[in-house]
Design brief:
Elements lengths: L1 H62 L3 H6 L9 H8 L2 H17 L5 H17 L6 E3 L13 E3 L9 E6 L2 E3 L5 E3 L1 E5 L1
Parallel strand pairs: 2-6
Antiparallel strand pairs: 1-4, 3-6, 4-5
Helix pairs in contact: 1-5, 4-5
């Protein structure tokens, strides 16, 4: 009798072990799915974060401009939010106005903000081109050491009338289809 009770007890315990093993396997499977989901969400989060950081970097650059430049550009960039910055900056007329402002600053010798302004222009040209089936605008191909060409470049007041380009202050814009110059590069000539 005692032996039979022990066998029943052992059988009951073995059944419990099997049930617990099935439950443990189900928990392991659930944990594995959860970890996979976590890894997918983490990957998506990091991708989104990288994209958002690239986009907001230009906005923070804009906010780092001198007060004089920001005041002058207040007619282009309405509002204070990142979304308003994007909506205003990607408009073709505003890209043109921003480029003209940058050119004028470079020609006046106000170079404090020109590097930032050029990066902002490049950002909005890239965004604008991305809203079309094929690019509309391109940047002039100009390099230090190129010969100054009045048809392609604008020289600063302190530059020689002819010679080689020693510095590029603002890169010009061209029609991406035809290559026609829309905005001449502002350069220093030595």
């Amino acid at each position: 009798m005692a032996e039979e009770k022990l066998r029943k007890k052992i059988a009951k315990m073995e059944k419990q072990i099997k049930e617990l093993q099935i439950e443990a396997d189900a928990v392991k499977e659930c944990l594995q799915k959860t970890e996979t989901n976590r890894d997918e969400y983490k990957s998506k989060y990091l991708q989104f974060k990288a994209i958002f950081q690239r986009q907001t970097a230009t906005f923070y650059q804009y906010q780092g401009l001198s007060e004089q430049s920001k005041d002058a550009l207040s007619g282009i960039f309405m509002g204070d939010s990142f979304e308003e910055f994007l909506a205003c900056g990607v408009q073709p007329g505003n890209i043109d106005t921003l480029w003209e402002f940058s050119r004028n600053q470079a020609l006046k010798g106000n170079l404090e903000d020109t590097a930032i302004l050029e990066q902002i222009i490049a950002y909005f040209v890239r965004l604008y081109n991305g809203t079309n089936k094929s690019p509309i605008l391109a940047f002039q191909k100009v390099a230090v050491g190129d010969s100054f060409d009045i048809d392609l470049h604008i020289r600063t007041q302190s530059s020689k009338a002819a010679g080689t380009i020693s510095n590029i202050l603002i890169t010009g814009l061209t029609n991406a289809f035809t290559g026609e110059t829309i905005k001449k590069s502002v350069v220093e000539v030595e």
